[in-house]
């Protein structure tokens, strides 16, 4: 911040009259501002921790259900929490800690802090963003997303990411050359598949499944609306094969809107057997191997979502694409659903308008996926 006297000094001068000292003062002010930004960045872990306690205490629903005008005080919330969780943590809530957590969330727009009146404590109410975390919203609630991202095994994994990038984590049990293990494995002692399959981690599995279900619904909609499937049926009934499609949800959505298409889902035998056992599908579910083109049925188009980039390195991705090429007719079509990063410098936070752009979220998600060893997304030019 520039003092009034300094402002007056600058205002009285033309650019030509400015001295080197004046420029140095400006640089110092800029440095102070940047220093504050770096401090805030270094302490940014406060936000997810505040969000975690916010949902664990059920505060979004308590605020949503409250009829209190002007919001709730921390004391109000503590009473409500104790009433709703009498045998759990409710009676032991630390009021000062809760106050600090709510103020952090107010700084990022999850709640709104109302000005305290005379002899009255400050009050908080849900913002529109915060209301999305209320479980009373049912399937549209984003509470499962926050629970998943902040679940203990994933939070622990963040702590070993620097060492993972430095190449310090190797699987010493390998008989061949030492293999780098993922941050999740390094932090929890087992792979994510092993962790989520254990009965004692049922709640973590539920968080993961709820999150995946929410994301899948959004992605299915994007896949259906992001490509003009009607073009495939312009010259007669066409066949589309979804490779790695699990239970076939994308193809079910496609064939529902375009019943003139024949849609098939191909996946590994164990995946298809599980899918058939759990629910009845309106499309064909076929066992196969995307690395063996002879197992891919005759088709006019192949669709893949999050297959060749999320799960495989460059060499394996090329092998999958080659199999698709061999399986398709000369005029066949390959449809790929993947996240694409814009080319630099469009992702850089060069000004206020780009700092919080949705494109930056792609980078955050990409970095998060590294916890379990996923490959980074490609930019437009890399594709």
Mean pLDDT, all residues: 81
Low-confidence stretches: 1-13, 173-178
The number of distinct helices, counting runs of at least 4 residues, comes to 18
Spatial sequence of strands, sheet with the most strands: 7-6-5-8-9
Order of helices and strands: HHHHHHEEHHHHEEHHHEHEHEEHEEHHE
Key structural traits:
single chain; 383 residues; alpha/beta; 5-stranded parallel sheet; two-stranded antiparallel sheet; disordered N terminus
List the helices and strands and how they pair.
Layout lengths: L3 H8 L8 H23 L3 H11 L2 H7 L8 H11 L10 H13 L3 E4 L8 E4 L1 H4 L11 H7 L2 H7 L2 H5 L4 E2 L7 E2 L2 H6 L3 H6 L4 H24 L13 E5 L5 H9 L4 E6 L1 H10 L5 E4 L13 E5 L8 H14 L5 E5 L2 E2 L10 H4 L2 H12 L8 E2 L4
Parallel strand pairs: 5-6, 5-8, 6-7, 8-9, 10-11
Antiparallel strand pairs: 1-2, 3-4
Short description:
This protein has 383 residues and is α/β, with parallel strands linked by helices. 47% of the residues lie in helices and 11% in strands.
Give a verbal description of the structure.
The chain is α/β, with parallel strands linked by helices and 383 residues long. Helices cover 47% and strands 11% of the residues. The chain has 18 helices and 11 strands. It has helices at 4-11, 20-42, 46-56, 59-65, 74-84, 95-107, 128-131, 143-149, 152-158, 161-165, 183-188, 192-197, 202-225, 249-257, 269-278, 314-327, 352-355, 358-369, and strands at 111-114, 123-126, 170-171, 179-180, 239-243, 262-267, 284-287, 301-305, 333-337, 340-341, 378-379. The strands form 4 sheets. The protein has a 5-stranded parallel β-sheet with strand order 7-6-5-8-9, with helices on one face. It has a two-stranded antiparallel sheet with strand order 1-2. Strand 8, helix 16 and strand 9 (333-337) form a beta-alpha-beta unit. Helix 3 crosses helix 6 and helix 8 crosses helix 13.
């Amino acid at each position: 911040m520039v003092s009034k006297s300094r402002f007056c000094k600058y205002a009285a001068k033309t650019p030509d009259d400015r001295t080197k000292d004046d420029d140095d003062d400006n640089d110092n002010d800029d440095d102070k501002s940047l220093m504050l930004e770096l401090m805030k960045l270094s302490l940014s872990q406060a936000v997810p921790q505040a969000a975690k306690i916010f949902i664990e205490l059920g505060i979004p629903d308590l605020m949503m259900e409250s009829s209190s005008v002007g919001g709730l005080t921390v004391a109000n919330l503590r009473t409500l929490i104790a009433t709703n969780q009498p045998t759990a943590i409710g009676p032991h809530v630390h009021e000062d800690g809760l106050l600090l957590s709510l103020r952090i969330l107010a700084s990022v727009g999850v709640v709104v802090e109302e000005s305290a009146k005379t002899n009255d404590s400050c009050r908080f109410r849900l913002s529109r963003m915060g209301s999305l975390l209320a479980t009373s919203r049912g399937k549209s609630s984003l509470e499962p997303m926050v629970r998943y991202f902040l679940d203990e095994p994933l939070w622990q994994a963040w702590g070993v990411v620097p060492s993972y990038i430095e190449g310090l984590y190797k699987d010493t049990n390998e008989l061949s050359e030492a293999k780098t293990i993922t941050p999740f494995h390094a932090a929890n002692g087992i792979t994510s598949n092993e962790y989520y399959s254990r009965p004692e981690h049922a709640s973590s599995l539920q968080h993961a499944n709820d999150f995946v279900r929410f994301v899948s619904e959004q992605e299915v909609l994007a896949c259906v609306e992001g490509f003009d499937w009607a073009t495939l049926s312009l010259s007669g009934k066409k066949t589309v094969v979804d490779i790695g499609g699990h239970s076939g949800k994308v193809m079910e959505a496609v064939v529902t809107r375009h019943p003139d298409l024949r849609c098939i889902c191909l996946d590994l035998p164990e995946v298809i057997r599980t899918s058939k056992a759990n629910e009845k599908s309106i499309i064909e579910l076929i066992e196969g191997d995307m690395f063996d083109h002879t197992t891919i049925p005759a088709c006019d188009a192949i669709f893949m979502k999050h297959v060749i980039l999320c799960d495989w390195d460059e060499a394996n991705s090329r092998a999958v694409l080659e199999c698709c090429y061999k399986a398709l007719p000369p005029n066949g079509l390959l449809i790929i659903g993947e996240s694409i990063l814009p080319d630099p410098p469009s992702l850089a936070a060069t000004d206020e308008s780009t700092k919080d752009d949705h494109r930056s979220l792609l980078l955050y998600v990409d970095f998060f996926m590294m916890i379990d060893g996923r490959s980074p997304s490609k930019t437009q030019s890399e594709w």
